[in-house]
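Input chain follows. Return structure tokens only.
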Amino acid sequence: MSPALPVLIDSDVLIWLTRGHVGAAQRLGQISTWRISVVTYMELAQGCRNKAELARLKKGLAVRNTDVLQVTPAISERAAELVDSLALSHGMRLADALIGATAIVHGATLMTANTRHFEAVQNLVIEAFIP
């Protein structure tokens, strides 16, 4: 049996967690190393309403020793390819292209509740989170 791929957590799953969703807490509790794209971090930080919420976000990610994966030239290149090939036909947007490319470049499964945003992406392994 081959080892499981690492999991890249999309922002929507973490948002479900902050809303107290039991399924999100259970599934995320099974992941030993949390990995998120820096784009996901920025989406979550933008959603904070004040400095206290931002501090809670940072503390929560730190407590889980979250690995925030930075955008690299390889991720940028792959994301640009995704936008070129899928923006017109499937509405691929910048943030989703960068997150999907991050998962591909890092050989990770993308856990997301927004599977339709990513279903057209070739070579991307998706774990659907169903709230």
